[in-house]
């Protein structure tokens, strides 16, 4: 944040904040508490360290966005990245130096952005253990999202969700040799979350952290190696969700330029993806132009209402935001007295007095 941003939050003069930063003046202890807990979301002790902590910088860690976008990450997005990193540390605290999954997916499947996308997507689907028939049996998009999410978690990747205030971002992933995590934007439709989930998984299979937009803006501005990985991640996600062989057979008589929105919706429901993913597959097959795709995508974007629904339980929502495997492990260790309530609450980021409500979610099987 700029000094003006901080001054506005504290309702103080910019000159005072600048004096604090230069060392000419200093905040009172109550002001320091406000800075720590409300403004910067940092431990108070950090302000007494001799040097700022050495932390990964977005420009070094995320190479899937152009520098101009990375320079303008919202404060809330930076906090979410820090939160995801905290979950990684919590996983290390729980499991030590080894993922509990005997054969994580990144050790089963080695991908190559220069290789055959269809063949690699088939390997990923096989490793996840989810078939097209499994997807078609799901009663709705939410069930399909849960199916994919649980499959990815069983493969060793922990998946978290959060409502992003920076709405143009679809999600991000943080690579780690034992505990990679994905965090997807919950402020949108379930079908769009499914694609985001697969896109971030593709990044991890390339041994890369990534942060992604819903659209393709900026991909051409990336350096060639990063551009290749971003395009490969899109292609791999599309092929996992909508295999071209099955898609071509199902749409042999389908004319994209003459199809109604309802026909696109019916086709999207076959794979439990968005209409935009379906139309993108037509472009990749050479049955629709990119101009047609962009025009329809804008039209459908205007139709979408990406506002959060009201009336839900806070605990149900927060339970769904947490990795199901992670939450179950914390609750299991607490019930076996391997963790105190305070330790368990700290791991999942809630106050101790609220932990038992999350324990109830796990016992009822309602955490996913």
TrEMBL record:
Protein keywords: DNA-binding
GO molecular function: DNA binding
InterPro entries linked: IrrE_HExxH, Rad_response_metalloprotease
Protein name: DNA-binding protein
Domain IrrE N-terminal-like: 153-282
Pfam families documented for this protein: Peptidase_M78 (PF06114)
Organism domain of life: Bacteria
PANTHER family cross-referenced by the UniProt entry: ANTITOXIN HIGA1 (PTHR43236), BLL0069 PROTEIN (PTHR43236:SF2)
Keyword presence, Transmembrane: no
């Amino acid at each position: 944040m700029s000094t003006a941003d901080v001054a506005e939050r504290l309702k103080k003069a910019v000159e005072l904040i600048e004096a604090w930063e230069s060392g000419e003046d200093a905040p009172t202890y109550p002001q320091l508490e406000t800075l720590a807990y409300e403004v910067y979301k940092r431990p108070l002790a950090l302000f007494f360290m001799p040097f700022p902590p050495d932390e990964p910088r977005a420009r070094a860690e995320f190479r899937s966005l152009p520098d101009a976008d990375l320079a303008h990450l919202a404060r809330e997005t930076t906090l979410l990245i820090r939160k995801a990193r905290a979950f990684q540390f919590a996983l290390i605290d729980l499991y030590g130096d080894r993922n509990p999954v005997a054969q994580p997916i990144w050790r089963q499947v080695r991908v190559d952005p220069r290789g055959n996308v269809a063949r690699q997507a088939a390997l990923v689907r096989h490793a996840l253990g989810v078939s097209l028939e499994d997807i078609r049996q799901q009663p709705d998009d939410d069930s399909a999202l849960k199916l994919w999410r649980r499959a990815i978690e069983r493969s060793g990747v922990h998946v978290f969700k959060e409502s992003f205030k920076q709405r143009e971002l679809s999600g991000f992933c943080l690579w780690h040799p034992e505990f990679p995590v994905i965090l997807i934007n919950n402020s949108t439709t379930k079908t769009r979350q499914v694609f985001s989930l697969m896109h971030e998984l593709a990044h991890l299979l390339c041994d890369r952290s990534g942060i992604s937009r819903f659209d393709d803006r900026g991909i051409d501005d990336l350096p060639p190696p990063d551009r290749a990985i971003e395009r490969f991640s899109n292609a791999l996600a599309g092929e996992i969700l909508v295999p071209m062989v099955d898609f071509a057979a199902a749409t042999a008589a389908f004319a994209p330029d003459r199809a109604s929105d309802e026909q696109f919706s019916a086709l999207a429901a076959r794979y439990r993806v968005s209409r935009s993913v379906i139309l993108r597959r037509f472009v990749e097959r050479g049955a629709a132009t990119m101009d047609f795709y962009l025009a329809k995508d804008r039209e459908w974007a205007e139709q979408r209402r990406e506002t959060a629904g009201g009336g839900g339980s806070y605990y149900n929502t927060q339970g769904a935001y947490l990795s199901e495997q992670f939450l179950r492990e914390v609750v299991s260790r607490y019930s076996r007295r391997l963790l105190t309530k305070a330790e368990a609450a700290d791991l999942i980021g809630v106050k101790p007095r609220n932990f038992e409500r999350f324990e109830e979610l796990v016992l009822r099987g309602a955490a996913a």
